Amino acid sequence: MTSTLETQLAPPPGAVREVKIAIIGSGFAGIGMAVALRERGEQDFVLLERAADVGGTWRDNTYPGAACDVQSNLYSFSFAPNPEWPRSYSGQPEIQAYLRGVADRFDVRRHCVFGADVLDARWDDAARRWQVRTTAGTFRAQVLVSAAGALADPTYPDIPGLDGFEGTVMHSARWDHDHDLTGEAVAVIGTGASAIQVVPAIQPVVGSLAVYQRTPAWVVPRTDRPVPRWRQRLYRAVPGLQKAIRGLLYLVREFLVLGMAKNRLFLRPVGKLARAHLHRQVRDPKLRKGLTPDYTIGCKRILISNDYFPAVAAPNAELVTAGIAEVRARSIVDRDGIERPTGTIVLATGFHVTDLPIAEKICGRDGRSLAQVWDDGMVTNRGSTVAGFPNLFLLVGPNVGVGHTSMVYMIESQVAYVDSALQAMAAEGLETLETTPAAQQAYRELIARKSKGTVWLAGGCASWYLDRHGHNTTLWPDFTFRFRRLTRTLDRENYVGAPARTSEVAA
What domains sit in the chain, N to C, each tagged with a CATH number? Predict the structure, then answer.
């Protein structure tokens, strides 16, 4: 049902609604941006959300076992600590409830237009406005902020015969909760962050489980435990304590950057921990060998789990490393020619990260889309702005991802940067603001320089961190506090702006 508020926010049929700022997405990034705007008194903005609720990836990923691999006290907004996290690592329902609570607490929902899937967004150079067409109507905005995120659109593998499979196929990010897996022959394709949560969650109930692995993952223990009531009460009574714990967690995780980006010697203790974890949980030498990576730890995302290895080693489970030759109507055939009867296929195959779907929908001054401009690799200034796209700001854009710590820390850094740009526009009376090609190229070279020799480029693996050219266009290749320093305020010297036209100033 559409609320009265949503009806007021969405334009009438055939009309265009004028807004100052349009934000795409209502996950951590979109909500964080909205809170920053509201906190300084800005009211003329909308959040365009294609779904019926806030939450982003934590609303969409509801597969069994879905949880965060960063501690709750760190994976949350610094301005909205939650003393009532039930566990040290929270599950999807708790994180989604947290985001809903933040949206309510800071009155963000009044700015949300739900059911507004963005069809395209085009810069009108004559009007100096973004024309944004959505399934809920058309909006015209001075500023466009894309907070669509990198984990928004699932990737479906190109496997011969998959389209002709007569059983059930579902992606982990589009879980069908009405489908009962009890007693079924299930195949899970993929062994990344989603798979190692799905597999142990469904293994006890399925009849048989085949885990199709392309590359084994490094897995370390998950130090998860319930948060006792007395500690929750203590957090409420002494907020500084929870803040101090958050700071400590941040520092411990930041230590990993030393090994990933500076000197791989610092990764050796983590590698030893992962090997010991595997040897302790998997006794079968053949299975253990199949689960042992042949690349440097950290090259792919380090995963955390206490129950993935036991689930794969269970009597009703099987690890398949031969690769998939084809999918038939009711079975999967591997490259060794072995055919396994299959009733349900779970695709734990990740997301479009280096080829963001939203990039195909946003077109700049010359009519080309971001995807076209980025054909030879995604490039930005500070992961936030692109030359030729005035008044466009990206949250969770290229080279903002992290493989060791909380993405929320990076989001808050970017939100501060974007808000600094918006305040500079207001202070100087600018109608447009755009980064220069020179600044963009300089930032690209900075990323390339910092990426050289890192475990992601030289660790002996192929990962979703790298684009099809082998470039790191996903991760920030340094300490995150250095990214925060870079984005604390707008680098005004790297931007050009056009003042508001006289007639509009007078108006």
Answer: 4-54+108-153+352-435+489-506 (3.50.50.60), 162-217+255-347 (3.50.50.60)
